[in-house]
Amino acid sequence: MGRRPVSLVAETCLRCPECGEQYLHQCDVGIYHHRIIGYALEQQVLVYTGGTVQEGIIPEGTAMNPSGERQGIRISFWCEHDCRVPDLLVYQDQGGTYIEWDSEKRLGGSPQGIIDLETTE
Fold it and tell me: What is the DSSP code (8-state) at residue 36?
C-alpha cells in the first residue's frame, strides 16, 4: 500500500490507520540526519523498546530515513486491537514538512519490538 496521509479531524489524538481507534502505543523511534555533504553517508539514531539505543554513520540509502536528502523521523506503534500499524513518518522534502503512514518499511511495531534487544546492545 505504500505511503498514505495521516488523518486528523478536529482532534489531537492520533488514531490507528487500520481500525480508527485511539489505542496506539509508541514503540521504536528512528531519527535520521540528512546526508553528509561530500560523502555518501548519513547519520541515524535508533531507540528501541526497552531503552536500547544505536547511533551511527551509515552508507547513504541503507537507513530507513523517510526523506531522500533531509532530516526524518520514523515512529513505530502497536495497537491494542492487534492491527498491523504502519510506521508514522515526519520528514522534510523540497522545503516542506510532511507527515504520513508508511506500510512498506517498518522499524518495529509490537509491544516487545521486532528487534532482538539482546543482539543490539
Answer: P
